[in-house]
Amino acid sequence: MNSLLQAPLMSGLLFLSVSLAKVIMEPKYGSICGGTWITLTLDGLSVNESELNVALVNPVLPTVLCDIEPLSFHLPVIKCQTRSAHLEGLYHPQLNGLTAHVPSQLRCDDCAFQFSIKHTPVLYHVDPPCGVPGNVIQIYGQILASKYETYDFDVDFIDGPVILKADGWITICSLADKQKRSMYPIQTSHGLGTLRCRVEGNYIGSHNVSFSVSNKGRSLVDKDAWLISAKEQLFLYQTFPEIFSVSPPAGSLGGGMLVTITGDFFDTPATVTIAGTPCPINYVSPQMITCTAGAAGENRRPNGPQPARVVCDGGVFISPIFGDMLATPNDFTQVVVAVNDIPANCSGSCTFQYLLESTPLVSNLDYSVDDAVHMLIHLVGSGLAADLKSLLVEVNQQDCKVLVSNHSNALCRMPLLPAGLYTVTVLVRPYGLAVNASGGADIFLRIVPILTAIEPPVASEIGGLPVILTGSGFDGIKLVLFGLQPCPVNANTSNATIIECTLPVRRGEDHTVHVMVVSEHGSTLFANAFTYDSSLNPVITSLSRNSTSIVGGQTLDIGISSFANYAGFDVKVIIGESVVEIQEQTHHGLSVALPSLTRGLYNLSVFLNNIPLGTKGMEPFIQYSTEAFGMEPCCGSLLVQL
């Protein structure tokens, strides 16, 4: 025996005698794809289980491991299965963990193994290229076998001569027809032939397929056998789910109806689309999916032909297989279910129609205030529900409790909402969501402030007094205008139904003015809602004096009606054209220091917030005159000129 063959085999061996220990190795050839079971018969050697391993080595090629079958280490036979070598080559065994019974010189008869393309089974074609789990498929290739090993029909094998692999998932393809308790036939001619098997399990996806031949190993895939999936993955066989029925067959253009799909081999992750529109899934079981249909999108084709899925996932095939070109035209929109991105085959009725006749419509929507905290919403339309439980109304994603409903009218009650524009959803079971009868799917409710009263409704031109607006929809009101003048809002006393603000002075406008409230959602105008009445202005009722010296300096008390209501207001007193210094303000009027003026009769004016006050029962004039306080001499003769 030459040293080249002997050195690998002796690795890890301990020789204790001159007795001869030997190893017998079978078979001599196998598949380059691995899977060949090699039998090593040991004579005069014992096994150390914890250290035992087998490798096949070549001086210039990578080492190939041979996985040991852990069944009976105590027997003088070791079985291991080769891994893939990828290339042809002659290899020799390297054994670790063997101990000779006595010192010896190890002998190995023909201890070499050839990875050979000639002895490699080849897969050329899988027919059909796709189907549901449980289908029988036919594999054409270089079979290198014409009969099966012994098969126990009462045992479910976890491994087998034909397997499908997908994303770490292994599926057995059974060579046995268990119902007939017979094997599917093998047909061969000069090494080429076909074998049939049934795809077990329920995995949905794109699979690689391989088969193993006893004493030969695992199959090689011919390059022309590969297909390309829609996810751009290579595969040989694809399993898909199946659709039997879709219920209901029609529904609202607005979507929202619960769609039930029956079939087989449904699983997660799954997706459902109807006419290209996603249908969010509520529930998935192997035989049923329920989802909530979306609204009919722009890409729907309710009247044009739609392809109905019959084979594969729409990938491009390298081989001349037509794939989706075998799809049949359908005049109605299709429900498409995909599991692991693999669309389901439709073996029953998979159509669904978005129909105007099945669509509830809302033609008018208004509201009113019910009490201090609630509002009533009135809907008018067609196709609404007579049964209160079949109608669900939401405004701004808040439930509006339905009080009354028939096919054309409905009334619901909910908490008051601030002013703004809100989306309304009206679900009529089982038909789906209502749409806007005037066009478009969306239904909106605009909440605007409602003014029921202003207290007081009439006030003086002076302004400055608090006014209270009552109504609804006042949330978020930041600005109130009386005419063109802002009425500062008291945020501490204002809420959704009340606004308190400080009345502005009238500025050259009409006495009756509009009131406007402004929020982030826009403005609302209440026409001619408030009146300024000059007759309610304070008036000058008295003057403590009507004349004074041209020297001035005297105090003048001015009586003013209701002056206590205007404490702190901007006050100005003018005599003639001179602005008078105000010395004191009381609840009853003003005290001012009269200025020095030339002799004459002067008009007195009082302004509150730049509004001139009128008079009542008196004339607002001050007489300025010259006064004599003494004369020298005090007396003289009548006859003499003094």
What's the assembly state of these chains? single chain
CA-based gyration radius: 51 Å
CATH architecture of the largest domain: Sandwich
Domains counted in the coordinates: how many?
A: 6
Number of helices, where a helix is a run of at least 4 consecutive DSSP H or I residues: 1
Chart the SSEs and their pairings.
Blueprint lengths: L2 H8 L11 E5 L2 E2 L6 E7 L1 E3 L5 E5 L6 E5 L8 E6 L6 E8 L1 E3 L6 E3 L3 E3 L6 E6 L2 E2 L4 E7 L19 E5 L2 E6 L1 E2 L4 E2 L2 E4 L2 E8 L5 E9 L3 E2 L1 E2 L5 E2 L5 E2 L1 E3 L2 E6 L2 E2 L6 E7 L5 E5 L2 E2 L2 E5 L2 E5 L13 E3 L19 E3 L4 E5 L2 E2 L1 E2 L6 E2 L6 E9 L4 E9 L8 E5 L2 E8 L3 E7 L4 E9 L3 E2 L1 E2 L6 E5 L2 E6 L2 E2 L6 E7 L6 E4 L2 E2 L11 E5 L9 E8 L2 E11 L6 E5 L3 E3 L5 E6 L10 E5 L2 E2 L1 E5 L3 E5 L6 E9 L2 E2 L1 E2 L5 E5 L17
